[in-house]
Structures are given as structure tokens and as C-alpha cells.
């Protein structure tokens, strides 16, 4: 990890000077209007898992013996610049490296939200986000927005239409949740911090290009977007045309139970891409069509189109007390066409609690616990049982059972900038396979943010 440490220290030192200079010039995190926003984050995660019972294994199986510690790094600079009235541009260079356990395969609810499905483990520099955002006024009332990550301090209309265009992550706008959203500070597992059944359009590292339009009102919001999809399953190159595109709709409404606030979100997704169907995959296994099987695994480019996946999602977070919050998600997709971008989950149900450490005099610490049950469609199940491989799963056989995951973490705020997290996950039927597991996964995370 020596090279990771050098990268983080170098960026952090440089960025610290930027923050000091901003403070000397009167910069702060209040809602006073400013022209610039600068933030930095670095996250390092290490994980190990136990050995477990395994009657067989395939190319995409989680290793059944104890692996060397899997380590990951991300470091991001968040730059924002206010342009003209109501407009800002956001630019995020990022460094990432390392890998997940078994190269982030073998568990549909993958174990580390900071790892990507890439072959290279050495740190890579890329542009994570570069997008323009414009607010259009719908009323006279205004509200303050404070300086934050990808948010320049300003006054904006309380009722507005906001248009964002460029490169971003769909998770920047959709499926938000106060208690289960950020793998850098909250839960590690993919199917806890996101709706696992939403095969959201993204390249290998989680980003896409397109436009998001939001109608934002004091009590509710409506979002709709059209964005590019991967040319190949789990691919770094994207495409957008009449045959390849994805649209997402979300309705968000504020909840109020007594003095406690919450939010409910309903999501509808639809994506067209080059994905074959699982029935085509079964036929390819029978005929030994290796080209099509490589397409499904993301190893070959399909020159035809035809994939169309649609899905639904429900997402709730609710404050229960000053220190305790609850969240849950339900997700479903039709499961006819192969997974193209996120992970191999067609049905999911998750829920959990997050508790601040006020009672033990650690008010900035948070303890969380969550459970999730994942499943796949009959077509998907038959494909895996016949020995098929996606880019996440494939044991060569399948004795199907729902994948169940329990995760708990404790996030300690050591000082203003540094957090340390201990994490434990229990996975039953990894990869939906009753013939493998259960497995215990232990993790440690360090996170710097300023």
C-alpha cells in the first residue's frame, strides 16, 4: 500500500493548503454565496473473509479458503465553480486502485462499495464527474444551500427546475437515503447502500453521461433522466443512440411523523442496450456458442441490439428519535436480459437502523445494522444452474437459495477530518448457492474528508 499512501499524502497536503488559503480569505462552509467550492476525500478499505464449506466452485466463485487481505483506495477532489446566476460547473478528478475479495465476484451483494470490477489493481487517475448545473426559478421564495461536496454555497429558489448535463453518477441524484447510501462512511455492501435490483447505467467505475432534469418543491421532487449505457457488459466505454439509452424516473416526498422527518422515494427505470436474454444464454450453452457466452460475461462486443430491462424501486428513510434512524428498500426488475452494469440482483429487500453515539458520549460516532435478501428471476436462475457465467456470478452449477446478508458497522469520528470504521458481514448462500457458505467477512475502513 506504499504507493497508495504517497498518493493520498500528496493530494491531502496540497489540498490542505487550498483549504487554509480559502479560510484566510474568509471561506467557510456556511450558506454565504461564494464562487468556488473545494473538498477532498480519501478512503482506504481492507477486508478478509473466513474459509467456508463449498461443494464446488467456478470461475466467478468467491474463494472458499481464506484470501490475502483485499485492499482498495479512492481519492477524490471535488471542485465547484459558480458561473452565472443559478449556474455552476462541477469537476471531480479521482484516483482509484486495489481490488475486492475474489476480484469483487461471487456475491451478488458485493462486499465493498469502493471496489470496481476492473482488472488493474494499480492506482488509476480519471475524471469521475464533469457537469454543468443550472437552476430555473419557479417562485419568489429562496433557500440557502451550504458549501458541500459538488455544491457551491448560494441562495437558490425553493421551487425550481434544475438541469444537470455532463458526466456524473446516477447515484448522485437518485435512490438517496439518509442512513444507507455512502460506502465511504456507512454500510459497505452494494445491496445495502443501493437498490441492488436497479441495474443502473454506468461504466465500470460507476459513471455515465447524459442529462438529469429535476422539479424541486419544498415538500416533494420529481426527477427524470436520459443517459448513456455501456457498449459491453461492465465496460468503460459508453454509447447513446436510438438503440442504446436509459431513462429513469423518481418521485420523492417528504414524510413527517410528529416531530420526526423522513422521505419516501419511488423509482422507475428502463434501459435499452446490447444485452442478450438469459434464454439466449441457455441456448448458447446448449449449442456451445462461445461468442455469445463471452458477450454475457462482458468479454466480447455484441454487434446486435435488443436488450430492454425495466424495474421498480421503493426507498424509505425515517428518523425515529434524535439519535436513531430507520431505512428500507424494495427493488424488482423483469430479469429477462442479462445484467449489464451494476450487479446480478433481480429482486431485493433490505432494511436497517443507524444509531448515533450520543448515549455513550460519542455524538459523532454512528453504529449501523442492516439485513438484505436478494434473489434472481427464473430465467436468470436457470442460466446460472446450467453453468452460465455473468460478470459477477457463476459457480458452474447452482442449488438455488436466496442470498441473505447481515451487515453491522461502527464508524468512529476520530477528529474533524478522520473516521475509522469496523465492519462485519455475514453472507448466507453467496451467489444464491445453497452448496456454498456461509461466509464471515471482516473489514476496516479509514476515511479522510474536508
From TrEMBL:
| Organism per entry | Chitinophaga varians
The organism's superkingdom is given as: Bacteria
- Please list the GO biological process terms of this entry: carbohydrate transport
Q: Which family does it belong to?
A: Belongs to the OprB family.
Could you state a single Gene Ontology molecular function term? porin activity
What cellular-component terms does GO give this entry? Answer: membrane
Q: What is this protein called?
A: Carbohydrate porin
InterPro entries, per the entry: Carb-sel_porin_OprB, OprB_sf
